[in-house]
Amino acid sequence: MIWEELDAHLDKVPGIVSAYVGRPGARPTWTRRADATHYAASTMKLAVLVALFRAAEAGRLDLDAAVPVRNSFDSALSGAPRFVNDRDYDNDEAVWDRVGGEASLRWLAERMIVRSSNLATNICIGEVGLPAVAQAWALAGARHSVTGRGIEDFAARDSGIDNLVTAADLAALLGELALGATRPGPLASPAGCAAMLDVLVAQEHREDLAAGLPDGTRIAHKNGWVRGVRHGAGVVFPDDAPPYTIVVCTTTDLADGGADGEVEDDACRLIAHVSERVWAARHDLAG
User: What is the rounded CA–CA span in Å between residue 195 and residue 51?
Assistant: First the structure.
């Protein structure tokens, strides 16, 4: 069976590899260490996106309102000095080009996802607040994932405040988005969930999950990476089968591409291989 083959293959991988595959709203077809926590890297931006859309639907934020684009943020550690982002560590010059000016929250949210901009992410967190991000995780049914701080908030990180995810929690959030686009759910209105999926479909970093799919396959996804970590989390929408959620989280020496998400490494190829094998079994997933 494909799942036993994948487990045998992943048993040989150094480090920790977690996975979750299943149809939204159904029991998973295959899991592997799905509740193991990993450093979140940029996958935490999924919960920030949900928090923004929820706040907009509640009337607390206007996604089309312009906000200042500033590189200075409050630390999650009480009493710590404000922190800044490193331009060389980011993936999106378009946001940095607007520093000192303004941009809409909707545009910043899109750049946070499609280019994985750290600066855009911290601006969005500053507008919506970390408690709202925590509520997004909770409403999705996440059990272990935490967004405790902004990106590059080193004072908070060094004090033990961190960002963690599990494959199961990422799958729960993405599954609720997919289901929420078809009927009312806990995260947002159907229109809001559909809009968030559209943002995720526009993802430009396609070196892992998307690389294992046939060209043109619709996938709403977010990945995350730092040296030693590479994750891919998405919902795949085949033309000939129901949608399915796939998440692969890796904490491994194979993830040596560094901060530049354009660098394909062995961890990218591993996630692409899992994605390819799951695609081959798309008609046989539990419903």
Answer: 13
Give the chain's radius of gyration (CA, Å).
Answer: 18
In whole angstroms, give the CA distance from residue 285 to residue 287. Answer: 6
171 touches 177 (CB < 8 A): no
- Please, how many CA atoms are within 13 Å of residue 63, restricted to the half-sphere of its CB? 18
Nearest CA among 168, 165, 225, 236 for reference residue 200: 236
Strand partners, 67: 103
Record the tokens describing residue 200, joined without a space.
């995720």
pLDDT digits over 91-119, tens only? 899 999 999 999 999 999 999 999 999 99
Count CB-CB contacts under 10 A for residue 8: 9
Q: Within its chain, how far is the Cα of 226 from the centroid?
A: 13
Measure the CA–CA gap between 13 and 35, rounded to whole angstroms.
18
Q: How far apart are the first and last CA of the chain?
A: 18
Task: Name the token pair of 46.
Answer: 């999924």
Say if residues 31 and 37 touch (Cβ distance below 8 Å).
no
DSSP lists the bridge partners of residue 31 as 20
* Residue 135: both structure tokens together: 């509520």
Nearest to 247 by CA among 171, 143, 173, 175: 171
Q: What is the pLDDT of residue 262?
A: 54
- The per-type count for the chain, helices as H runs and strands as E runs, is 10, 10
Dihedral over Cα of 196, 202, 207, 208: its sign: positive
Closest CA to 167 of 47, 53, 20, 30: 20
